[in-house]
Specification:
Elements: H1 3-16, E1 19-23, H2 44-51, H3 59-62, H4 65-76, H5 78-91, H6 98-106, E2 110-113, H7 119-123, E3 129-134, E4 145-150, E5 155-157, E6 169-172, E7 175-176, E8 182-183, H8 187-198, H9 205-210, E9 215-219, H10 226-235, E10 245-248, H11 254-263, E11 265-268, H12 272-281
Helix pairs in contact: 2-4, 4-5, 4-8, 8-10
């Protein structure tokens, strides 16, 4: 099947909800600050450098953002990490990503976005929807998520049993600064979140029902890091088979090839920019 035919299939599936977009850091590669044109930090390395005022950290900390965030949390407190993410994604003004502009024309009824920015929320402004933000290490609840409903203009937090499961759902497992800051960032966050995700406490019951038999389109995702792979594997539980979905990864390495084969994801060796280019021509 040609890339053009695949795009037609994907756009149809994204619109009717049979295909779920799964957005990684690469979808934000074209986003820049409206003030000084610097690139939005989204990848692990970009986030580490931004958190450390542009300077590299020790090699063992540069390996992955959660490790670097854990180091900052231990030295300066959890609030330091939260302030950095709030400033980066909640206060700085950014240009729109081409992928988000494209998805805003389709408005998929279910989207998973592991980035911590707010572009996905902006895409659904004016449209009633549900928002799920991941959270970790909180007491007094068995859940590892915060659930909000939007009437199209503002959010309010609701318990899962009050959710209207017919509304579009935006699932941001790593959190966001709005409506209230909530993040999965440090190693300790990931350990807690993934443990509860595996136990079923990080996904609302209505999502467990909705996701049965879905296929997934992975955009802007590299699959080299164990933490992101573990989150992905659990969020894709009960997916369709043959294939479970597709991943756009130019020049995938052997580790990525093996992982995709194991979970039933078909590799499409293209950049996400190729998808947008085709979409604009269709």
């Amino acid at each position: 099947m040609t890339f053009t035919h695949l795009l037609t299939q994907w756009q149809s599936g994204l619109t009717d909800g049979s295909i779920v977009p799964y957005l990684g850091p690469g979808v934000l590669a074209d986003v820049t600050s409206t003030l000084d044109s610097r690139t939005m930090p989204a990848s692990s390395e970009q986030l580490i450098l931004a958190m450390n005022n542009g300077s590299p950290m020790a090699p063992k900390l540069m390996y992955e953002f959660p490790r670097a965030a854990m180091n900052v949390e231990l030295k300066r407190g959890r609030a330091a990490v939260t302030r950095f993410l709030d400033t980066t994604y909640g206060e700085t003004r950014w240009t729109r990503a081409a992928v988000h502009e494209w998805l805003a024309t389709l408005h998929p009824p279910y989207v998973i976005d592991i980035n911590r920015d707010t572009q996905l929320l902006d895409s659904y402004g004016g449209i009633p929807h549900l928002l799920i933000l991941g959270c970790a290490r909180i007491g007094g609840t068995d859940y590892r998520f915060k659930l909000y409903v939007s009437d199209g203009s503002s959010y309010r937090e609701i318990p899962p049993e009050q959710a209207d499961a017919t509304l579009p759902v935006l699932f941001k497992p790593m959190g966001a600064p709005r409506p209230q800051p909530s993040y999965i960032a440090s190693d300790a966050d990931y350990v807690d979140y993934i443990t509860e995700l595996m136990g079923g406490f990080a996904v609302p019951a209505f999502i467990k029902t909705r996701r049965r038999g879905k296929r997934y389109l992975l955009l802007g995702m590299r699959l080299n890091r164990d933490s992101e792979r573990m989150v992905l594997s659990d969020l894709l539980h009960d997916a369709a088979t043959e294939p479970a979905g597709w991943a756009l990864i130019a020049d995938p390495n052997d580790k990525e090839r093996r992982f995709c084969k194991r979970i039933g994801i078909e590799l499409i060796e293209e950049e996400v920019t190729a998808l947008i280019g085709e979409a604009l021509l269709s």
